Amino acid sequence: PSNFAGVQRETSLANCRVDFTFTGRAAHAAAVPELGRSALDAVELMSVGVNYMREHMPSDCRIHYAVLDSGGISPNVVQAHAKVRYVIRAPELPGLLPLIERVKKVAEGAALMTETKVESTILAGVSNLVVNTPLMDAMQDVWESLGPPPFDAADQEFAAKIRATLTPEDIAASWRQERLDERDVPLADFVLPAHGELRQMGGSTDVGDVSWVVPTVQAYGATLAIGTQLHTWQVVAQGKSELAHKGMVSVAKAMAATGLAALESEQLREAAWADLRKRLKGQAYISPMPAGTEPPVAAMTVK
After folding, report:
1. Which of 114, 66, 132 is nearest to 276 (CA)?
2. Which CATH architecture has domain 14-126?
3. Average pLDDT value for the chain
4. Closest by alpha carbon to 62, among 204, 173, 170?
5. Tell me: the pLDDT tens digits for 98-117?
6. Taking the CB of residue 31, how many other CB atoms lie within 10 A of it?
7. Labelling 146: which of 26, 115, 248, 275 has CA 20 to 30 A away?
8. pLDDT score for 167
9. What is the DSSP track for 268-294?
10. From CA 60, how far away is CA 201, in angstroms rounded?
């Protein structure tokens, strides 16, 4: 899903999601605080440590966190348990793995400072996307043949209502991300032009793992009013709209036609494989997930 239709000419970030569970000892925070060992303090100290670590890691890496369990609602109790979830990202998989270990060391340090115990559980992990020039060029030809989705006046009107809820900064950011001059239109009535610049997107995708073992190309579908930013209510509001379905059908055609082109052209297939081997430079695929990891259905379910 995107504001625009076209070829995704961007790599994605390798990503790992880790839960850190701290266990301490409960106590009355006023009467006998010396008997308590705060798991919540450990979570906070881990955050401080990771914040300091950010100064000493590659600037294109990212670390985010969310406190899942603060231990309870009573501040007069030394919290005996707490849990925090970290998402760790790096431009490439080989750079992600050592960064994960550094974050784990920070957690161990926080546990040592607070005399608590910590357990880490890797919940999910994805590799960076390895782009493929021959397949991107083939898909560009397909998009230019298909053209943008067939939006009508009703789609434009609905998109305009969505756009009215967005800020000027939201709208400008969408155009800027694609290096395009801003226009006063609610929907993209064009296909993204080809360019030779390989860009880095801020997000991650499990398609990245596929791209390490087989030539891969991805497409953007114009399913959102221009200016809509991901992970917002505006995305949800447009999900079942007519314009979103038109954009989805359009991108499905582009993907299918590109796949057909690869099936019919041995030259394209050979060029795609050669491009993948060149980009990997002999690096073997290593899963960011530990061997034997079970799907964390319960941990990833919102209660």
Report:
1. 132
2. 2-Layer Sandwich (3.30)
3. 94
4. 204
5. 999 999 999 999 999 999 99
6. 9
7. 275
8. 97
9. HHHHHHHHHHHHHTTPPP--SSPTTPP
10. 11
Q: Which string of DSSP letters, residue by residue, matches 177-227?
A: HTT----S-SS--SBPPP-S--EE-SS--THHHHHTTS----EE-B-S-TT
Does the pLDDT of residue 256 top 90, yes or no?
Answer: yes
pTM to 2 decimal places? 0.84
Domain spans of the chain, in order of start: 6-12+129-280, 14-126
Residue 303 is predicted with a pLDDT of 65
Return the closest-CA partner of residue 81 out of 38, 137, 46: 38
Total number of residues shown for the chain: 303
- The predicted structure's pLDDT at residue 210: 96
* Matching residue, tokens 């006023």: 30
Query: What is the Cα–Cα distance from 27 to 78, expressed in whole angstroms?
Result: 5
In the chain, beta strands by DSSP E: 6-7, 10-11, 14-23, 27-28, 62-69, 77-78, 81-90, 117-126, 199-200, 219-220
Structure tokens at 134: 């021959």
